Structure formats: C-alpha cells, structure tokens
C-alpha cells in the first residue's frame, strides 16, 4: 500500500462563490445584453452579425485615431480605393450564408464525410473497374486539368481578395470561398490518387501536362492566370465568380461532368464534383448579394453599372474563348449524351439570368 | 490517415501548383526582401480532408464546455476583478486574429514557394476561426456575467479607446508595410511564436484560478492551431536567411518586432495577470516568472538563439532589457497604475487592492510597496464619488505620463524617456528602441539602403490629442462610455455595483483633460528642457 504520509502538499487556487451571475443585481446597464454598436439587419441580431460586424474597424465608423500604420506608398488599413467599385456604405453587405466559425467547420466536415464515404464505397465495390477506357482517360485528363484551376483560384484569387475589401463581412465571405476551393481542389487531387492506386490503367501525373500544354485547356489556364494578375479586388471577384465561374466553371462541372458521368458508368465523380457545385452556389449567393447592393446603391449605382459593363466587356470574351476551346472534350467519352452547344447554351442561360439579377445589360457576345 | 498515406497525399496535392506562363499573380504587397536564392522549405503538412473534421471536433469540445459552464452556473464563482479585464482583452484580440488571416496573402505574394502557400491559406481559415470563436465567447460573457456594460459596446470601444489603440498595433502591424516584416517577422516569428504563449496559455491559466474555465477552453483550442503557424513562419524565415541581402532587414525587423511585442503584450497581459487575479498564493507564478519560462527559456533560448548558427545577430540586448524592465523597472506595475489612473475613460472596472494583494506583490517584487503601495492606498481612498475627484485629478504624487509615439504605451519608466523632434514635431518615446523604430526603421531608407516597402507610422498616435482641453464628462460622453441610465459611467475604480457608489457624468464634470504632447509642443525650448528633466528625474513624486 502506498505511503501517504510523505506526499508533497499541493497548492491550488481556492474557489470562492461570488454571485457574479447575470441578474444577481439591478443597476444601470445590468440588462444591456446585446451588442449595441451596430444596427442588425433585422430586429434581432444573428450570431453571424455579432461575431463579424465591426471586428475590422473603419475610420468612417468608430475608429477615431485612424489607421496607425501605413504602407510605404499609401495609407494602411483597407483603403476604399483598392477597387473602382464604390458604395455609399460598404457595411450594408452581410453574407447571406452567415458564415462563421461553426458553419465553416460543420459544412466542410459534412462534405469531407460525404466524399470519404463515397470513395471508400467505390473502393469496396471495385467501382472503377467498370469504367470504360475512354472515360478513364477523360477523368485523367480533364478533371485532372480542372483541379489546377480550382487551386489557383483558391490561393491567388479568393485568399488574395480577403486582404483588400473594406469590411469584415466581405473579407470573411471571400475567405470561406477560398477554403471551399482549396478543399475541392484537394479532393479532386486525392481522387486522382485513389484512381492511380485502383489497379486500372490510370496515369496519375498526366494532368500536369494536360493543364500546361493541351491546346483545349490553354485558354482556360490563360484566363485563370490573367485573373490572378488583376489588382482591383472588386474586378477580381466579379470576373471570377460572376463571369468565369458561370461560363467556364459551371460549364465544365454542371453542364458536362455532372450530366455525362452516370451514362459512362461513373457514380463517384458526380458526388465529388457536386460538392464543388454546392460550394459555388453558396459563394455565388454572397457575390450576387454584394454586386446587387452595388448596382442598387443610390449614390453610386449608375457608375457601378457602367463599371461592371466594362468588366464584362473584358472578361466575357476571354471566358467564352476558354469555354469554346474546351469543345473537343465533349467528344472524348464513349457515351456522349449531351452536345457542347447544348451545354454552352445552358451555361449562357444561367449567366443571363444572373446578369438580370444584377440588373446588368447582357453582353452581345452571348448571342453569337 | 497513416503517415505513408499522408506523405503520398501531400505529394499529390503539391502537384496542383504550376508555373504560370501567360500572366503572374499581381503583387499587391511589396517587400524589400529577396527570395531569388531561397531553397524551398516545406512547412507542416495539412490536408483539408483531415483539417476540417479535426477543427470540428475541437469546436465540439469548446461548445460543449460553453454549454456546461452555463448549466453549471460558472458565473457564481467567477471573480469580477478578473472578468472586468476581459472587457478590454476580448475587445482587442479578435482584430489581431482576423488581421492574421488578412496577412496571409501578403506572405503568399512575397514568398515564391507553393508548398508554403498551402499552409498559409490554411492559416487564414484558422484565423477566421479564432476571431469569430473569441467574439462568441465574449457574447457569452455579456449574456451571463453580472455586469455586461463594456462587453455590450465592445468593438466600438476597441476602436475609440487609448488602450484599444495600443492593442491595435498587434494587428495592424501584421497587415501593413513590408510584406515580410509584417506577415512573417512581426506576426509569425515573434508574435505567434513568442507571445501567444503568455496570451493564450499563461493568461487562461490565471482565468481558471479565478473561476473562469471558458477562457482556457477557448484559448487553448486556439493555441493548438499555432504550431502550424509557427512552422509556416519558420520556413519563410529560413528561406529569407538564404540570401545575405536579407540579413540587415531581418535584424532590423527582429529588433522592431521583439521590442514592440514586448511593449504591447507585456503591458496588457502582465497587467491582466498581476492585477486581475484574486489568487494570491505565494507559490503562484508571477508574470515575471511566467515570462521567464514561456518567453525567455522557451522562445529566446530554444528558438531565437539557435538562429545564430545561420549568422543572424539576435537582439540579445533587447531581450535582456525587456526582462530588466519587467523585473527591475516595474514595467507591468507602471502600466497597471496608468490604466487605473485613467479609469473614467475605461470601459471596464478596476478593483481596489487589499493588504493581501500588497503582501503578494511585495513577496514577488521586493520593494513594490515603497514604490506603488501608497498610490494604491490613495486609489482605495478615492474610489467613491462625492468628496473627491477621480484620482487622475487629485494630488497623489503622480504626473499623467507622456505617450510613446511608437508603441503608444506611455513613457512610464520615466528615466528612459526619449524626447526628439521628428517630422517637425516634438515626440516622446518610452525607450531608445521605440525612438529608433520611428526615426530609423519605419523609413524609406535604412542604413543607406532603399526600403520603399517599409511601413510608416501614421494616424492620430497620441490619443489625448483628440480630447485636448475638453471636460472629462464630455469626453466620456463622446466616447459612449455611459451606462443605460444616461449618466453612470461604465468604468469605475471599484467593483461595488450599488448605484449610489458608482460615478456619474456629474461626478467627473469640471475636470479639464490636457494632452501632454500638445502642451509639450507649445513649450519654449527652455520650458521643454526643464519639463523633460523633471519628468525623467521624478515622475512619481513622493506624496
């Protein structure tokens, strides 16, 4: 039996009952239990608003001493001049997805579980062995190429933008979009790894050469690289989420892969690509909401519309060229249940509908 | 995922990057560092497929504890002395967290290493997590703690308060100026690697001793992400060290970042731990003892010193001087006294000190009573309204201090104050290093070399300037630090919530508040010299 007479006396803090609970006393402000420095969009503040609004301060709101560090060539903080788009109140924007810590991890973990289960089941069922060779090559080349675009947009578009916008609400929404893209790109890469190890004739590293050199993918790569070179965060967000994702991203994911995979005996790829589509639907909702606010801005709406028209005139031709260059891949699978023209028309229709939501003129290039 | 699978997965993910040939990413944030010769360093591996479930699990534990705290009536045993300081701390910290997220593309722009880009982007998401989870913790305090005043106006108060501005450096410093100075050296190499130990580990431990186990729950969860961030920072540091041209800049930035972090973080966290606790066990570690363990041994000796083998000059002198300021020059005690002097313009209440506190301070910091005891006795004596003014306006042998133009903590170690005319303005600094930071480091040229990307010190840096020659009651009202009866102040120099013992606007009216810097610049040369000599010689007159 252990000797307990020679043990060191432990030192620990003493608990004291202080009766410091809410409601223990009535005194001035004893019932002031809401954040009172901003006006919530509805009568009652949401969790999202409480943990997001005003965390990034603004000299136009409560920041009295101004930004205390500047750049070598200009002011610090979050200058509104970092985009040509203008707003009479940038703080009006609230993320319709209400993303904060809990939603980010719950939603993405749910996707991780969905994808993981799907891949485990596919392995157990030997699902890839039933794929025809043409489909294996299609996935190897084209899904392989596409994952580069997703990763590039994650790191050099959305991650980049979230340093620049003038409010925490915009920047957090874009940071979440970056996380979506990064997770989706990695899911595609790890799917590629599974296929490489699946005892089928799948060339895992082939995607690099396709992305870097295949003629049908070069206009897409060029457009992605040109997007990353845009300095104006507003233009970058608009060109990526409003134009590129509609005319190239959705065209490839929704109007091609999701439509034809099942007919080619593949029930795995749509499950994974569908998560990317779901991410985009959420991220687009945030972008649509932001750009709607800007075109409806009483003071700057007209100027913003004109500006967005200019951005459309730059990016619609580039993205259409990228889309059209992809046409040959519609012919690669053994089963071709949909034509390129049908897919492109569907993508254009969705794009037109989005532009109508944004009250913007439809570019003439869409009718050509 | 097995280690082998993880390695294969990471190798596959690294195939996602490519060398652009049509256009390169815009460089929005410049750096004077160069990485042309840098070897590619691989930071800690992280895959989103494992990252999201890991964080979700951590969250579930945090939120479970929060529910448990409410159900278990944690606030029956929380010390108000402690939680009042959280009104200040939790108003500040979500901004540095979100600023760390914003800093990541600056590092990505500056460092040509795709392996690191991935880790930095994951860090960005971590920081969104930290910022919002901390805002949520604060919301819980606001809802459950006896006195919500101050929590309820938190982000506004952070943005218009003198202490909030001090804390704001620990955030703006991450996102402004030279991309490597800001997003790597200041943020990761110094702030995250050194000072999160006291912020997120030492301080939450003290919270637990004061009945609050939610602060450790949330902040230890936050801290568990920091090892990846430290790995990101170290990788970039090693890449920078590969080019001799970066050495002077690294040495400059280590000096600036170390000293500014010391000035800001030790001021705040030292005060919270030493003056916010009710745990006065003699064998409880003091802040100085914690600092010795977490900063001096764990960071300086284990992390900074080994960098010497790369030929880097480490700021030994500044590490030793920070230690000297904490142990011999009373830095933390001076800051606590300054915060307490300014109580009417605080949005938290500061408790009086008791004999038990005095004994503990004397035990831990011999000589404390002779230097600070009398002042705290006066603080106790002047705690209630009616017969006296706020202590700042009573003669208790304490001269309201000049503010350091650089770190914005006042020049409280008065004999060390530097006064110089910089950019056509007389400015005061707490130390030679803070003077050097403004006059030499944050400039477009450094030691004969062009440094166009280095940041600048801007803004209304002396808070008092904004309120010069105004009545104290009007200042408090303008700041919004008034409770919902329209007259009682949020800040109080005691913890008694009896409305009859709480100060109102009428109680503080009639006291004019003057900016030391405005007055300094109005003085003739002779007046200024005499004033500065007296300040340096004896800022604290014996009453």
UniProtKB/TrEMBL annotation, chain A:
<dbReference type="GO" id="GO:0016709">
    <property type="term" value="F:oxidoreductase activity, acting on paired donors, with incorporation or reduction of molecular oxygen, NAD(P)H as one donor, and incorporation of one atom of oxygen"/>
</dbReference>
<keyword id="KW-0503">Monooxygenase</keyword>
<dbReference type="InterPro" id="IPR009078">
    <property type="entry name" value="Ferritin-like_SF"/>
</dbReference>
<dbReference type="InterPro" id="IPR012078">
    <property type="entry name" value="MP_mOase_hydro"/>
</dbReference>
<protein>
    <recommendedName>
        <fullName>propane 2-monooxygenase</fullName>
        <ecNumber>1.14.13.227</ecNumber>
    </recommendedName>
</protein>
<dbReference type="Pfam" id="PF02332">
    <property type="entry name" value="Phenol_Hydrox"/>
</dbReference>
<dbReference type="InterPro" id="IPR003430">
    <property type="entry name" value="Phenol_Hydrox"/>
</dbReference>
<keyword id="KW-0560">Oxidoreductase</keyword>
<dbReference type="InterPro" id="IPR012348">
    <property type="entry name" value="RNR-like"/>
</dbReference>
TrEMBL record, chain B:
<keyword id="KW-0560">Oxidoreductase</keyword>
<keyword id="KW-0503">Monooxygenase</keyword>
<dbReference type="Pfam" id="PF02332">
    <property type="entry name" value="Phenol_Hydrox"/>
</dbReference>
<protein>
    <recommendedName>
        <fullName>propane 2-monooxygenase</fullName>
        <ecNumber>1.14.13.227</ecNumber>
    </recommendedName>
</protein>
<dbReference type="GO" id="GO:0004497">
    <property type="term" value="F:monooxygenase activity"/>
</dbReference>
<dbReference type="InterPro" id="IPR003430">
    <property type="entry name" value="Phenol_Hydrox"/>
</dbReference>
<dbReference type="InterPro" id="IPR012348">
    <property type="entry name" value="RNR-like"/>
</dbReference>
<dbReference type="InterPro" id="IPR009078">
    <property type="entry name" value="Ferritin-like_SF"/>
</dbReference>
């Amino acid at each position: 039996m252990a000797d307990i007479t020679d043990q060191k006396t432990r030192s620990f803090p003493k608990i004291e009952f202080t009766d410091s609970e809410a409601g223990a006393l009535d005194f001035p402000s004893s019932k002031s239990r809401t954040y009172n420095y901003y006006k919530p969009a509805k009568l009652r503040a949401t969790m999202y608003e409480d943990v997001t609004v005003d965390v990034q301060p603004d000299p136009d709101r409560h920041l009295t001493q101004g930004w205390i560090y500047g750049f070598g060539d200009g002011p610090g903080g979050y200058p509104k001049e970092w985009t040509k788009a203008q707003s009479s109140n940038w703080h009006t924007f609230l993320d319709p997805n209400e993303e904060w810590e809990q939603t980010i991890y719950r939603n993405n973990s749910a996707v991780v579980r969905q994808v993981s289960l799907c891949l485990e089941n596919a392995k157990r069922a030997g699902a890839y062995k039933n794929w025809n060779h043409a489909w294996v090559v299609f996935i190897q080349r084209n899904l392989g190429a596409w994952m580069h675009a997703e990763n590039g947009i994650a790191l050099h578009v959305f991650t980049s933008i979230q340093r620049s916008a003038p409010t925490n609400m915009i920047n957090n929404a874009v940071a979440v979009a970056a996380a979506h893209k990064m997770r989706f790109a990695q899911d595609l890469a790890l799917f590629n790894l599974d296929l490489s190890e699946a005892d089928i004739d799948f060339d895992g590293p082939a995607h690099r050469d396709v992305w870097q050199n295949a003629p049908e993918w070069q206009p897409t790569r060029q457009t992605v690289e040109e997007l990353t070179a845009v300095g104006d965060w507003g233009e970058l967000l608009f060109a990526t989420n409003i134009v590129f994702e509609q005319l190239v991203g959705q065209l490839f994911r929704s109007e091609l892969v999701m439509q034809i995979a099942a007919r080619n005996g593949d029930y795995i790829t749509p499950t994974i690509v569908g998560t990317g589509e779901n991410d985009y639907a959420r991220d687009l909702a945030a972008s649509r909401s932001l750009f709607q606010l800007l075109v409806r801005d009483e003071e700057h709406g007209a100027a913003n519309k004109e500006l967005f028209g200019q951005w459309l005139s730059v990016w619609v031709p580039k993205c259409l060229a990228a889309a059209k260059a992809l046409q040959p891949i519609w012919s690669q699978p053994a089963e071709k249940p949909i034509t390129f023209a049908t897919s492109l028309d569907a993508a254009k229709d969705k794009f037109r509908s989005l532009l109508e939501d944004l009250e913007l003129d439809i570019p003439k290039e869409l009718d050509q | 995922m097995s280690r082998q699978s993880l390695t294969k997965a990471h190798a596959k993910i690294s195939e996602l990057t490519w060398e652009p040939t049509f256009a390169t990413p815009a460089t929005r944030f410049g750096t004077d560092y160069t990485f042309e010769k840098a070897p590619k360093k691989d930071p800690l591996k992280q895959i989103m497929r494992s990252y999201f479930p890991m964080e979700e699990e951590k969250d579930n534990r945090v939120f479970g504890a929060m529910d448990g705290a409410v159900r278990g009536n944690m606030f029956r045993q929380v010390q108000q002395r402690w939680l009042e300081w959280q009104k200040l701390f939790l108003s500040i910290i979500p901004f540095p967290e979100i600023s760390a997220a914003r800093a990541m593309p600056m590092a990505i722009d500056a460092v040509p290493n795709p392996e690191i880009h991935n880790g930095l982007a994951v860090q960005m998401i971590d920081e969104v997590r930290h910022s919002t989870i901390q805002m949520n913790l604060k919301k819980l305090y606001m809802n459950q703690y006896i006195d919500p005043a101050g929590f309820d106006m938190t982000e506004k108060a952070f943005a218009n308060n003198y202490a909030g501005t001090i804390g704001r450096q620990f955030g703006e410093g991450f996102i402004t100026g030279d991309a490597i100075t800001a997003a790597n050296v200041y943020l990761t190499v110094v702030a995250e690697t050194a000072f999160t130990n006291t912020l997120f580990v030492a301080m939450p431990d003290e919270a637990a001793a004061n009945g609050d186990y939610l602060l450790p729950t949330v902040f230890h969860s936050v801290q568990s992400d920091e090892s990846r961030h430290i790995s990101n920072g170290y990788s970039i540091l090693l890449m920078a060290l590969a080019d001799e041209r970066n050495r002077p800049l690294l040495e400059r930035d280590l000096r600036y970042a170390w000293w500014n972090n010391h000035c800001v973080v030790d001021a705040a966290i030292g005060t919270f731990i030493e003056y916010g606790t009710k745990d006065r066990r003699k064998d409880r570690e003091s802040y100085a003892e914690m600092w010795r363990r977490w900063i001096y041994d764990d960071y300086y000796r284990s992390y900074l010193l080994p960098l010497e083998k790369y030929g880097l000059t480490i700021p030994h002198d500044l590490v030793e001087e920070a230690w000297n300021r904490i142990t011999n020059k009373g830095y933390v005690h001076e800051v606590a006294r300054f915060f307490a002097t300014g109580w009417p313009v605080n949005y938290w209440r500061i408790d009086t000190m008791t004999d038990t506190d005095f004994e503990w301070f004397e035990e831990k910091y011999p000589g404390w009573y002779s230097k600070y005891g009398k002042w705290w006795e006066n603080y106790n004596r002047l705690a209630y309204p009616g017969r006296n003014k706020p202590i700042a306006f009573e003669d208790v042998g304490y001269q309201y201090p000049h503010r350091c133009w650089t770190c914005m903590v006042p020049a409280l170690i008065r004999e060390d104050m530097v006064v110089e005319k910089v950019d056509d303005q007389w400015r005061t600094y707490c130390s030679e290093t803070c003077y050097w930071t403004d006059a030499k480091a944050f400039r477009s040229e450094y030691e004969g070399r062009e440094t166009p990307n280095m940041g600048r010190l801007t803004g209304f840096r002396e808070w008092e300037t904004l309120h010069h020659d105004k009545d104290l009651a009007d200042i408090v009202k303008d700041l919004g630090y008034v409770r919902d009866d329209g007259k009682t102040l949020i800040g109080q120099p005691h913890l008694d919530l009896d409305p009859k013992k709480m100060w109102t606007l009428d109680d503080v009216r009639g006291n004019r508040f003057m900016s030391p810097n405005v007055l300094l610049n109005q003085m003739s040369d002779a007046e200024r010299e005499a004033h500065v000599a007296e300040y340096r010689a004896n800022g604290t007159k014996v009453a």
